[in-house]
Q: What sequence folds into this?
């Protein structure tokens, strides 16, 4: 009975995190973007600095009519948002937030492979939406999504493999247990490659041609309305949470901090994740969108060689210190 | 063909997990299946059904998506056999990359929504014969080889990353390296072929829209 209660509690906590953190990041994005552009952002909903703006947005989305285009492939069109959203929930289960077995939803033996595999599945949702909408903008968006994923999965995997080599394990809590502070400069190239590739996989600016609203009208999501569109947006922000959490765990030492790692480890994890999420928003405000060919060039001529160099460096250092 | 590859991968798992199992003296019977065995059987039926639909449906993209279900079902089977590492690699490579590549190709060729009347092959009987023959051969070999081998599901995981890695790099290094050389050859071959096709296209018709460099020039 105790076990059942334990599992239920863990699942519940992960689910609550899954529902609230993306909204917090979304609200932060509203406000941070506004202030960086000399605006105030949402100020009315909820009273204090528009804190309830996303709640109001959610209520609005839920009230809208759910339209399926006449020419669309109905079942796949309706299934796509779920396929896009659910993988991120599964990934959150495996991200450790503090030291010990109590601070992770579920200990996965091959954690690195699990999170990367499941994150890759989420992209299928965008592809399904792009094809099933029977809309040329959606199809273009789907094509760009697929091209982008194929270009960025390799450097992401190689960067993660470098950390796994350094730690000698592919389990996420295991990697954190093996972490030392000097891994930070040692793995910094891998960290940057991982983060940039992750941004591209999430289709966040400056890598957002698949959803480029000014050219192809939100790409694969053109035909979506109401709650299903909201689910796609939620998937994007859940993806930010997952990417920042993963970068924190793999490269920034997760719950390790200058002090208080025992009781306050989870604070360090959350703090690092929040800072990375801020960087994601910052990049969106700062950089213009890359063109499709520029993105492919960046991936194949810069990120892949860099990640391979990082793996070589990791191997050399690992052999030397043994 | 999907069927036979499915069988082949399933058989491969069994061989990889069987090394760490012990031939129990008190062999469990078929008549009192445990929960895991029932789950294995049910997932296997679903996977089998999805594989059948994959090769019989007339809707191209649906076939690709049913392939996702098939490969995902196989991953679940690996998990049930405690081969966790193989399961996640299966999802990463097949669902995450191969099917995405397939869908990319289908989108490039504008796969229509609805049935494609020409989505059929005159080779279907030959393909079926080959599939049935290879499936029969694999089942026969696997059953014959692992007749009395049972995986102890209660003990330590027989297919964890550590066990798989040790088996791969201690006993199976040579096949592993041979495979990587094969993949390298395929990679080089693909690059050579695509470069040659590009050069031919540029020679025959300069007006045909081609690679990215021309697109850049147009801008």
A:
């Amino acid at each position: 009975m105790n076990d059942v209660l334990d599992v239920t509690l863990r699942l519940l906590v992960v689910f609550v995190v899954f529902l609230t953190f993306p909204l917090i990041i979304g609200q932060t994005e509203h406000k941070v973007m506004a202030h960086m552009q000399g605006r105030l952002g949402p100020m009315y909903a909820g009273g204090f600095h528009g804190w309830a703006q996303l709640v109001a947005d959610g209520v609005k989305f839920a009230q809208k009519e759910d339209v399926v285009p006449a020419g669309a492939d109905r079942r796949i069109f309706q299934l796509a948002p779920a396929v896009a959203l659910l993988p991120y929930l599964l990934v959150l289960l495996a991200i450790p937030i503090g030291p010990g077995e109590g601070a992770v939803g579920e200990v996965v033996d091959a954690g690195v492979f699990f999170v990367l595999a499941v994150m890759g599945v989420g992209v299928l949702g965008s592809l399904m939406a792009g094809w099933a909408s029977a809309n040329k903008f959606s199809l273009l968006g789907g094509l760009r999504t697929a091209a982008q994923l194929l270009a960025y999965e390799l450097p992401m995997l190689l960067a993660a493999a470098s950390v796994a080599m350094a730690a000698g394990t592919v389990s996420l809590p295991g990697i954190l247990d093996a972490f030392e502070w000097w891994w930070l400069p040692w793995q910094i190239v891998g960290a940057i490659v991982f983060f940039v590739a992750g941004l591209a996989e999430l289709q966040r600016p400056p890598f957002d041609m698949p959803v480029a609203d000014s050219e192809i009208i939100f790409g694969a999501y053109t035909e979506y309305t109401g709650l299903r569109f909201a689910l796609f947006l939620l998937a994007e922000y859940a993806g930010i949470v997952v990417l920042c959490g993963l970068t924190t765990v793999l490269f920034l030492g997760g719950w390790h901090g200058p002090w208080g790692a025992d009781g306050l480890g989870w604070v360090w994890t959350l703090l690092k994740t929040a800072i990375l999420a801020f960087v994601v928003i910052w990049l969106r405000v700062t950089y213009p969108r890359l063109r499709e060919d520029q993105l492919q060039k960046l991936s194949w001529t810069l990120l892949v060689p860099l990640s391979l160099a990082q793996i070589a460096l990791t191997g050399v250092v690992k052999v030397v210190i043994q | 063909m999907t069927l036979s590859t499915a069988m082949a991968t399933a058989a491969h798992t069994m061989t990889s997990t069987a090394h760490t199992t012990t031939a129990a003296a008190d062999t469990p019977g078929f008549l009192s299946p445990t929960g895991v065995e029932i789950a294995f059987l049910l997932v296997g039926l679903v996977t089998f059904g999805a594989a059948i639909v994959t090769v019989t449906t007339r809707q191209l993209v649906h076939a690709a998506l049913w392939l996702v279900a098939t490969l995902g079902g196989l991953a679940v089977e690996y998990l049930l056999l405690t081969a966790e590492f193989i399961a996640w690699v299966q999802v990463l490579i097949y669902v995450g990359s191969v099917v995405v590549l397939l869908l990319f190709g289908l989108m490039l060729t504008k796969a229509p929504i609805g049935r494609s009347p020409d989505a059929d092959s005159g080779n279907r009987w030959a393909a079926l014969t080959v599939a049935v023959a290879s499936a029969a051969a694999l089942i026969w070999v696997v059953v014959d080889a692992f007749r009395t081998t049972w995986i102890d599901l209660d003990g330590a995981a027989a297919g964890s990353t550590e066990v798989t890695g040790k088996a791969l790099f201690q006993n199976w290094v040579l096949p592993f390296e041979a495979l990587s050389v094969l993949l390298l050859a395929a990679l080089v071959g693909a690059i050579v072929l695509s470069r040659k096709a590009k050069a031919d296209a540029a020679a025959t018709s300069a007006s045909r829209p081609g690679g990215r460099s021309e697109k850049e020039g147009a801008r």
Q: What stands out?
A: The mean pLDDT of chain A is 84. Chain A touches chain B at residues 71-73, 76, 108-110, 113-114, 116-118, 120-121, 123-124, 127-128, 130-132, 134, 139, 142-143, 146-147, 149-150, 153, 157, 169-171, 293, 296 (CB under 8 Å).
